[in-house]
């Protein structure tokens, strides 16, 4: 019994009743337009006073409502928000974007028609039934305290009839509540199917998620390459400076200057990346480093840590496309970072950058040191190089051969950027 009472008069049912009343209010302009059409057709002067004319006007207005929903895409957004607030439907089962495709417009039109149709019926019942039920409930009292029932049929003046009228009145109110609860439950059940995302909406959402993941992966690579290289270089520079503090003060000064320069540049790059991640914040102003802008600085900071780097650049960095120059810089940076971490500071790294067959070729070679084994949890650097190379349509090969670690990357000068 408690479940029935909750279904008929619970808080959720009352909110759905309000949703239905709103549907009835939205239906009124279409009913008025239907009256303008039905009046001349049926030769009725006062359509509002004729029950059949009102029903015909209502029937004519519903297709007009469906047409309105199909022509105005924002109808789905408005209806979805109303359903979420009043019908108790989970927000993630509804689509709040305007209806753009044919399927979405057809579903929105069907929903709007159902909402206004059920709403018009329940709103009309809500206006007519309660006053009539009240009259039936108080009818016995009127008969007791008056000489008769004015304007009522004589049969209603019978005692058994007067005894039943309150029961009928209460039954009418319960029937109204049952109709409103049933209509509200049906609309709540149909809402996800008609106002939920269509296959096109799901595809668009999947594409948006894929684009967001691509941006996040790119930012993760930027953070790994920039911060990882900086920490490796600073660690090696600080270690070399500590060892030579007493014997070579000039080298220590150079190492400290390189540490200062490396950390300053890395903080700028970190601020630029984090600025993109902070929603609502403007991106950082530090530009992404490129071969043309910072290859010499990268080599100078790496050598300041004690690592010997022999560089041969047979390509003009200024002539490279900006995207290619930026990604090539990160590849060189990650290659040098790997050498810092795994080869030790007593080896010589050979870097060659050149152009052959319309491809930019980057080769880094260094002898395998005693610390050549990968550290636990490592391996992200080579994966990042592979990701960058793949996105540019190039090829990458890395591995040990005859005691030498070799990284070779070929990037097309004109390719997918």
Automatic annotation (TrEMBL):
Q: Which GO terms describe its molecular function?
A: ATP binding; phosphorelay sensor kinase activity; protein dimerization activity
Enzyme class name: transferase
Q: Which GO terms describe its cellular component?
A: membrane
Which residue windows are transmembrane per the record? 20-39, 51-74, 110-143, 163-188
Its EC number is 2.7.13.3
Looking up InterPro entries in the UniProt record yields: HATPase_C_sf, Sensor_HK_TwoCompSys, Sig_transdc_His_kin_sub3_dim/P
- As recorded in UniProt, coiled-coil segments are none
Keywords (A to Z) from UniProt: ATP-binding, Kinase, Membrane, Nucleotide-binding, Phosphoprotein, Transferase, Transmembrane, Transmembrane helix, Two-component regulatory system
Question: Which Pfam family, giving just one, matches this sequence?
Answer: HisKA_3
Under catalytic activity, the entry for this protein gives:
ATP + protein L-histidine = ADP + protein N-phospho-L-histidine
Q: Which CDD domains match?
A: HATPase_UhpB-NarQ-NarX-like (cd16917)
What domain of life is recorded for the organism? Bacteria
Query: What region holds the Signal transduction histidine kinase subgroup 3 dimerisation and phosphoacceptor domain?
Result: 216-281
PANTHER family from the entry?
Answer: NITRATE/NITRITE SENSOR PROTEIN NARX-RELATED, NITRATE_NITRITE SENSOR PROTEIN NARQ
Query: How is this protein named in the record?
Result: histidine kinase
Protein species of origin? Streptomyces davaonensis (strain DSM 101723 / JCM 4913 / KCC S-0913 / 768)
